[in-house]
From TrEMBL:
<keyword id="KW-0521">NADP</keyword>
<feature type="binding site">
    <location>
        <position position="38"/>
    </location>
    <ligand>
        <name>NADPH</name>
    </ligand>
</feature>
<dbReference type="GO" id="GO:0030145">
    <property type="term" value="F:manganese ion binding"/>
</dbReference>
<keyword id="KW-0560">Oxidoreductase</keyword>
<dbReference type="Pfam" id="PF02670">
    <property type="entry name" value="DXP_reductoisom"/>
</dbReference>
<keyword id="KW-0464">Manganese</keyword>
<keyword id="KW-0413">Isomerase</keyword>
<feature type="binding site">
    <location>
        <position position="209"/>
    </location>
    <ligand>
        <name>1-deoxy-D-xylulose 5-phosphate</name>
    </ligand>
</feature>
<feature type="binding site">
    <location>
        <position position="36"/>
    </location>
    <ligand>
        <name>NADPH</name>
    </ligand>
</feature>
<feature type="domain" description="DXP reductoisomerase C-terminal">
    <location>
        <begin position="258"/>
        <end position="379"/>
    </location>
</feature>
<keyword id="KW-0460">Magnesium</keyword>
<feature type="binding site">
    <location>
        <position position="147"/>
    </location>
    <ligand>
        <name>Mn(2+)</name>
    </ligand>
</feature>
<feature type="binding site">
    <location>
        <position position="173"/>
    </location>
    <ligand>
        <name>1-deoxy-D-xylulose 5-phosphate</name>
    </ligand>
</feature>
<feature type="binding site">
    <location>
        <position position="149"/>
    </location>
    <ligand>
        <name>Mn(2+)</name>
    </ligand>
</feature>
<feature type="binding site">
    <location>
        <position position="196"/>
    </location>
    <ligand>
        <name>1-deoxy-D-xylulose 5-phosphate</name>
    </ligand>
</feature>
<dbReference type="Pfam" id="PF13288">
    <property type="entry name" value="DXPR_C"/>
</dbReference>
<feature type="binding site">
    <location>
        <position position="214"/>
    </location>
    <ligand>
        <name>1-deoxy-D-xylulose 5-phosphate</name>
    </ligand>
</feature>
Length: 392
């Protein structure tokens, strides 16, 4: 029996993880589940999976969760510290599927227990890659990528000499607006941005796909996870989303990972690793697919990709600041305080200001420095979004 915990159980990745676990009940014992405001769903999941502990990150949701789980014997807790406590319980395998930088501290807690951490939460590596890798090394924890592109790279690297890797190519669908004329992007609404041509995902990552902030985070994530130089990570637009990533080797070979755009593949691969087991995903019919297309991303349309390069060059706390500024800018866009294209302007201004002040410079950032840079960037981005955004 594998003892598993799911952080962010009620989200898009969390629900798909639970679906796969429930399909093989004899192989898994659930230790802890965490969620947010969707207490009805969290309670329902807990009644089915019988974890020892169920946690909502919101204290004002605790009473309802307690009431819904009355008489089940399942312990209930609430708040950020309780989420980290859930991650610290003795599990062999922990799914990190909280959205945003909020996933960092619980993920680190699981790593410090020596658990295998299935990493859907890309923000963890963007904000604190070196810190997370060092903690995993020190505690003998294994990191398994769940982001589809990174799972694809990970699979293409099995049995290969890492020193023979020349480059990694991440594919991007182009998101909701890939075929919109550039002038129209300024008018895009949150509702329009929250639809994805190929993947079904949580609201925030779907909007990040339209702006390419998602791909920008993934470029940094790939660099950190696979120990690459910034110029070894490339992005290509591939509207069909059938190739998830490619690895280029020093003999010119390109290994591509293909499959239907279905996160249950990457989740299932991490759940069953190092084995491969049957998964309920569609099998591709290449003849029916016919053709696949590729094109270079247009940096005028996607400033986030340029910013990712800058973040990798700056290093230090730039990833933590970049991600936090992006999260705050996305909040402002969702609240209709700023337009779609202004998200990148807000992030740029935050990076410029913090960089000029020397606030991003530090050799090996510790957790306090990362959380400090996150808080400062978030606060600056929120302030710019309220007041002095230059609409150029
Ligand atoms: P989601 O919004 O559907 O779910 C997020 C989960 O995190 C929910 O359970 C929510 O209750 C919980 N949560 C939210 N804020 C929290 C906080 N402050 N503290 C504790 N818990 C909190 O998100 P998702 O689409 O499932 O994405 C989860 C993570 O996986 C993200 O980092 C995302 O980038 C990554 N990811 C998702 C997909 C996908 O297909 N959805 C693909 C690749 C990577
Ligand atoms: Mg991805």
């Amino acid at each position: 029996m594998k003892r598993v915990s799911i952080l962010g159980a009620t989200g898009s990745i969390g629900c798909q993880t639970i679906e796969l676990i429930e399909a093989a009940p004899e192989r898994f014992e659930v230790v802890a589940l965490t969620g947010g405001r969707n207490v009805a769903l969290l309670a329902e999941q807990a009644k089915r999976l019988r974890p020892g502990l169920a946690v909502t990150c919101h204290d004002d949701c605790r009473a309802e969760l307690t009431e819904r789980l009355l008489g089940t014997g399942i312990e209930v807790a609430s708040g950020d510290a309780a989420v980290a406590e859930a991650a610290r319980m003795q599990a062999d395998w922990v799914m990190s599927a909280i959205v945003g930088a909020a996933g960092l501290v619980p993920g680190l807690a699981a790593i410090r227990q020596g658990a295998t951490l299935a990493l859907a939460n890309k923000e963890t590596m963007v904000a604190a890659g070196p810190l997370v890798l060092e903690a995993a090394r020190a505690h003998g924890a294994t990191l398994l990528p769940v982001d589809s592109e990174h799972s694809a790279v990970f699979q293409a690297l099995v049995g290969e000499d890492r020193a023979a890797v020349e480059r990694v190519i991440l594919t991007a669908s182009g998101g909701a607006f890939r075929d919109w004329p550039l002038e129209r992007l300024a008018t895009a609404t949150p509702e329009q941005a929250a639809t994805h041509p190929n993947w079904s995902m949580g609201q925030r990552i779907t909007i990040d796909s339209a702006s390419m902030f998602n791909k920008a985070l993934e470029v940094i994530e790939a660099r950190e996870l696979f120990g690459l130089a910034p110029d070894q990570v490339e992005v290509v637009i591939h509207p069909e989303s059938l190739i998830h990533a490619l690895v280029g080797f020093n003999d010119g070979a390109l290994m591509a990972h293909m499959g239907a755009p279905d996160m249950r593949h990457a989740i299932g691969y991490a759940l069953n690793w190092p084995e491969r087991r049957d998964l309920p995903v569609a099998r591709l019919d290449l003849a029916a697919t016919g053709s696949m297309t590729f094109r270079a991303p247009d940096e005028a349309r996607y400033p986030a990709l340029r910013q990712a390069r800058r973040v990798m060059e700056e290093g230090g706390l730039a990833g933590a600041a970049f991600n936090a500024a992006k999260e705050a800018a996305l909040d402002a866009f969702l609240d209709r305080r700023i337009g779609f294209l202004q998200m990148a302007q807000v992030v740029e201004q935050v990076l410029d200001t913090m960089s000029r002040a020397g606030a991003l410079r530090v050799d090996i950032p510790g957790l306090d420095a990362v959380l400090g840079a996150d808080a400062e960037a978030r606060e600056r981005a929120a302030r710019i979004s309220r007041t002095d955004l230059q609409t150029t």
